[in-house]
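S.,

Sequence below, as promised.
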Amino acid sequence: MTYIVNDKCIGCKYTDCVEVCPVDCFYEGENTLVINPDECIDCGVCEPECPAEAILPDTEIGAEQWVQFNLEKSLIWPNITERKDPFPDAEKNLEKADKFNTLFIDKPAS
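The prediction came back faster than expected:
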């Protein structure tokens, strides 16, 4: 088992999870985070820290599609190891639907 970040993080990018990760397996895109599933040690300390509830074990229904996405992006985006301010309008974006198709920015953090 590993943990993944799903589309609930898009447009929010809270980094509370990064701060508690003991192995620094988070990677940062312009408006979302991902977890490298090969680096994740399955400790689960990040999951309750996410205000957007975007972190799930890969055994949850619907999580399987995010495993490959997290792996692919973690190989090209920069590692993030410290808490930062959330994405602008994070609160407003929390409950938006179809965030992948409407908000996702496919580039690394600048």
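Residues 1 and 103 are 28 Å apart (CA to CA).

Coffee later?
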